[in-house]
Amino acid sequence: MTRDEIDALFARHAAAEHEKDVDAIMDTLAEGVEHEVVGDPRGVLTDREAIVQRYLELFDGLTEDKLESTRRYYGDDFFVDESHWYGRATGMFMGIPGGNRPVDFRILHVCDLRDGRMSREQVWLDMAAIMQQLAPAQ
């Protein structure tokens, strides 16, 4: 894929996440995709229904205001996107009650590509920043 094609694919994926459109998200993922949110005890998911469930839980816990990409690295069949996420923790997020509080954090997507789609999506979240912002008041 060219850089423009990669950018368009990730823009489509990010827009679908922002709109909480699971069907559109899944359309950006290749058959046999490996999906991982580092720190999620379920680990790497390959079952499409389990991936859909992961996204639905994410959408129950977070509402995105914006995602700002800060850097992107490209390879022949992969890309790495560094971004900053801004929004609200409206429910449970990674086992932490959000209480509808604002939260922002760095996020890293490491993605392999096949046939114009993501064949692996590994997501790294700045959990230290998230925990500091969502920690119960002392």
From TrEMBL:
SUPFAM superfamilies: NTF2-like
Gene3D superfamilies hit by this protein: 3.10.450.50
Name this protein carries in UniProt: Ester cyclase
Organism, as annotated: Nocardia huaxiensis
Lineage: Bacteria, Bacillati, Actinomycetota, Actinomycetes, Mycobacteriales
Domain of life: Bacteria
GO terms classed as biological process: polyketide metabolic process
Classification via InterPro entries: Cyclase_SnoaL-like, NTF2-like_dom_sf
